[in-house]
Specification:
Layout: H1 2-39, H2 50-57, E1 94-99, E2 108-121, E3 124-136, E4 139-142, H3 145-148, E5 152-156, E6 161-162, E7 166-168, E8 173-175, E9 178-179, E10 182-183, H4 205-241, H5 243-268, H6 275-282, H7 288-303, H8 318-328, H9 333-343, H10 354-364, H11 368-380, E11 382-388, H12 395-405, E12 410-411, E13 416-417, H13 418-421, H14 423-430, E14 434-437, E15 443-446, H15 447-452, E16 461-466, H16 468-477, E17 481-489, H17 493-506, H18 517-537, E18 541-546, H19 550-561
Helix pairs in contact: 4-5, 5-6, 5-7, 5-8, 7-8, 9-10, 17-18
């Protein structure tokens, strides 16, 4: 019996010893983990919870040296996380997301770039994601600039998956790892716990206030100059041409002042809640020259001076048309005068022609730093001479003569050739990178052709012979260039009609088989009227040459082209 009791006591002591060993082992292990979690550095992991961080920073359990076989965790700061923890989202990340119209439960899989992050509630963030185009072999490229805005959608950050993409400059695209034909994500979700959004930029309120005062001063000065010079031009016209032409000139000058005012409305509302409304209101400025023509036309009809035919221009004489256009363009004269004045001073080092140069100089004032910035911008932007106008103005012949007489200073853009480049040409065409493709489809004009065909070290400048359609595309999508725009026109629509008729008679302009000559001529005349309207109201052109004398036009073109080197 005593032996049995002794054996039972020994087994009981063994069990108790084993239990105590387990309890002490667990306590020792926890003490070690907590100690390292609270004292290590923050180089590896990111803090995810303030409460947990504070709790770990003050461990109360005594640190015990671990055995040699124990694998200690890496140093961390805050709450310990796995080494493969998901990253926080940031602007510029390439992500995978799903579009609702995808034909399956999740939607259509897409790859895009995160452009903007916004906080919509205390715990919810959304982002603007711009879709990218799959171009093959794992490459995703941005859509052409004119399509990018329509490719931007708002997505919740919870539904975005980060992708480890790398930009390949030679392909101008992002290489995305693929798995089973699908983009491979590094994590299914971004880490959003403890995420407070992108760090806001610091704004210097003094600089903003000072720039606002300069802008108000500039706007008032432009309006005063336009009104004052319009009044002077009206007075000169009254004394030289009579009351009727003086009133017509005043109508055009008033339209010019209105153009400047409505343009300022758009500028005033940029970035505000009323930006959309301001943009809509400011578009009225494009109709002001037409309103001026209509008012003169109605006055002629009422007074019986109009020769009523089928178009607006038949009720306005060539002299009245010229007065309206000159009066409307009066607002640009002070800009050129200030530019010329500054061209003879050290302060005019930037030498940007037109309204862009005057605006930059007025805003810079006497501040040397801003002047240096303008010079730097001028060095980065490549000058491009853009010559445009309706058909019948001999602009192509004038450009050919300018290139021949320039001793290599003016050059044509080197075009992409479909026969030589093959797949590259097809790729660029599919992505819409060409501003224009020739009628036979062999040659294409792209942004790189315009910017890289001239050698700045040799003082070369690219010259573009553009119709109205090409001029619109270039003005909207060409960045990195300082465009010197020249517009050619004739002083009456009847002269355009004569030019077109001469081209038809000589065979240079062919009439389609399904149209007669009169129908074709009327259609071309309507196109000319639309082109003239664009040339008048567009801000693209710094110089307007209205003449049918070849030598006079060429001399003015040479003078305008000289601004490429200033």
């Amino acid at each position: 019996t005593s032996a049995s009791s002794l054996a039972t006591m020994i087994r009981t002591i063994d069990v108790v010893t084993l239990v105590l060993s387990c309890i002490l082992g667990i306590a020792w292990t926890d003490a070690f983990s907590l100690h390292h979690s609270g004292t290590a550095s923050s180089s590896t992991y990111r803090q995810t919870s303030t409460k947990r961080h504070q709790r770990i920073q003050s461990p109360t359990i005594l640190y015990v040296e671990p055995p040699k076989y124990y694998n200690a965790p890496s140093p961390t700061s805050g709450t310990p996380k796995k080494t493969n923890a998901a990253p926080y989202p940031k602007i510029g990340d390439v992500v995978r997301y799903y579009d609702l119209d995808g034909g399956n439960a999740k939607g259509q899989l897409k790859v895009g770039k995160l452009l903007l992050i916004q906080k919509v509630s205390p715990e919810k963030f959304v982002g603007d994601v711009m879709e990218m185009e799959f171009v093959g072999d794992g490459y995703y490229a941005e859509f052409p600039s004119r399509e990018r805005r329509s490719r931007i959608t708002v997505q919740e950050l919870e539904g975005l998956s980060p992708i480890s993409a790398s930009y390949v400059r030679s392909a101008d695209a992002f290489f995305v790892p693929m798995s089973d034909g699908q983009p491979k994500v590094t994590f299914e979700r971004f880490e959003l716990e403890g995420y407070s959004g992108p760090k806001p930029l610091e704004v210097n309120s003094d600089v903003v206030e000072r720039d606002g005062e300069k802008y108000v001063e500039l706007k008032g000065q432009l309006l005063r100059d336009a009104a004052l010079l319009g009044a002077v031009g009206t007075l000169v016209t009254l004394l030289s041409k009579g009351v009727d032409d003086g009133l017509v000139y005043a109508t055009g000058a008033l339209a010019g002042v209105g153009y400047v005012y409505f343009l300022s409305v758009k500028t005033d509302t940029v970035g505000s809640l009323g930006a959309k409304l301001g943009n809509s209101i400011s578009n009225v400025r494009f109709a002001l020259p037409v309103f001026a023509l209509l008012s003169v036309s109605i006055k002629n009809i009422i007074s019986g001076d109009a020769n009523i035919e089928s178009s607006l221009f038949s009720t306005v004489s060539a002299e009245q048309f010229g007065c309206i256009i000159l009066g409307f363009l009066t607002y640009r004269v002070p800009l050129f005068l200030r530019r010329i004045q500054e061209g003879f001073s050290d302060a005019g080092a930037t030498n940007l022609p037109g309204s862009a140069g005057v605006a930059a100089s007025l805003l810079s004032g006497a501040d040397a730093d801003l002047s240096a910035s303008n010079i730097l911008i001028d060095e980065v932007l490549k000058p491009v001479l853009l010559v445009s106008g309706p058909p019948g103005t001999d602009k192509t012949a004038l450009i050919n003569k300018l290139i021949e007489d320039s001793d290599g200073k003016f050059v044509r853009p080197i075009l992409n050739d479909r026969l030589l480049e093959g797949a590259k040409f097809e790729f660029m065409e599919a992505r819409g990178e060409f501003f224009e493709i020739t009628k036979l489809g062999r040659f294409g004009l792209s942004k790189d052709n315009i910017l890289n065909s001239a050698d700045p070290e040799k003082g070369e400048v690219v010259v573009i012979d553009a119709d109205t359609k090409l001029a619109k595309k270039i003005s909207s999508n060409l960045s990195g260039a300082r465009i010197i725009g020249v517009w050619f026109s004739l002083d009456s629509v009847d002269k355009f009609k004569e030019k077109l008729q001469d081209q038809i008679d000589s065979g240079k302009l062919k009439v389609p088989m399904d149209e007669d000559a009169d129908q074709f001529l009327r259609a071309k005349r309507r196109e000319v009227v639309a082109d003239i309207e664009y040339g008048v109201v567009s801000d693209l052109f710094d110089f307007m040459i209205v003449s049918d004398d070849f030598d006079s036009c060429y001399k003015q073109l040479e003078n305008a082209a000289g601004f490429c080197f200033r």
